[in-house]
């Protein structure tokens, strides 16, 4: 090769390692220019042959998300975004989905009364989720009430048994 050619074309060890990693992790085979085959078959280059029809962008994106395994995260984010239509207007005003972790949907409720009410509606909500978002992978729902103050630490904490010492 020419003296002024880049290192990659000169065949250095680093170039060979790069090409090998590209084959292993990139999914593409590296072919040298001399090994490349040229098409001589005229039937393969027919402009309106089989497999040459244009595809819609939605089909391509759908196939890509399926191939990359993005179906579940996309379904989960769609579930959280559409919580109002899933749970109902009144319920959504008093509850907010916080996140999804290991198939458990966590919902923060405005009050303990709303948390209890939603616990009673758990089966209906799970049924709606299973029908509308089957790829989300939601196995259960956890309803949380409001955060209440704890007296275990801070200015009102007491050494020893504390509040329980008068009850036996």
Mean pLDDT: 76
How many helices? The count is 8
Sum up the overall morphology in one term: flat
Instruction: Give the termini separation.
Output: 92 Å
Order of helices and strands: HHHHHHEEHHE
Query: How do the strands of the widest beta sheet line up side by side?
Result: 1-2-3
Strands, helices and their partners?
Elements: H1 7-10, H2 13-26, H3 57-68, H4 71-81, H5 83-87, H6 89-93, E1 95-101, E2 104-109, H7 112-120, H8 122-132, E3 140-144
Parallel strand pairs: 2-3
Antiparallel strand pairs: 1-2
What does this structure look like?
- The structure is a single chain.
- With about 170 residues, this protein is α+β, with helices and mostly antiparallel strands.
- About 40% of the residues lie in helices and about 10% in strands.
- It contains eight helices and three strands; from the N terminus they run H-H-H-H-H-H-E-E-H-H-E.
- The protein has helices at about 5-10, 15-25, 55-70, 70-80, 85, 90-95, 110-120, 120-130, and strands spanning about 95-100, 105-110, 140-145.
- The protein has a three-stranded mixed beta sheet.
- A hairpin with a 2-residue loop joins strand 1 and strand 2.
């Amino acid at each position: 090769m020419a003296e002024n050619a880049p290192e990659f074309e000169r065949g250095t060890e680093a170039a060979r390692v790069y090409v090998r990693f590209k084959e292993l992790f990139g999914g593409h085979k590296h072919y040298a220019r001399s090994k490349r085959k040229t098409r001589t078959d005229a039937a393969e280059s027919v402009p309106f042959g089989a497999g040459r029809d244009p595809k819609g962008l939605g089909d391509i994106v759908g196939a890509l998300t399926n191939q990359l395994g993005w179906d579940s995260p996309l379904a989960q984010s769609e579930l959280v975004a559409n919580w109002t239509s899933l749970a109902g207007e009144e319920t959504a005003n008093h509850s907010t989905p916080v996140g999804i972790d290991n198939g458990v949907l966590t919902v923060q409720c405005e009050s303990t009364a709303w948390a209890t009410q939603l616990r009673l509606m758990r089966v209906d909500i799970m049924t709606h989720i299973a029908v509308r978002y089957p790829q989300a992978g939601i196995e259960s729902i956890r309803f949380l009430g409001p955060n209440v103050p704890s007296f275990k630490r801070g200015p009102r904490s007491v050494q020893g048994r504390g509040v329980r010492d008068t009850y036996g």
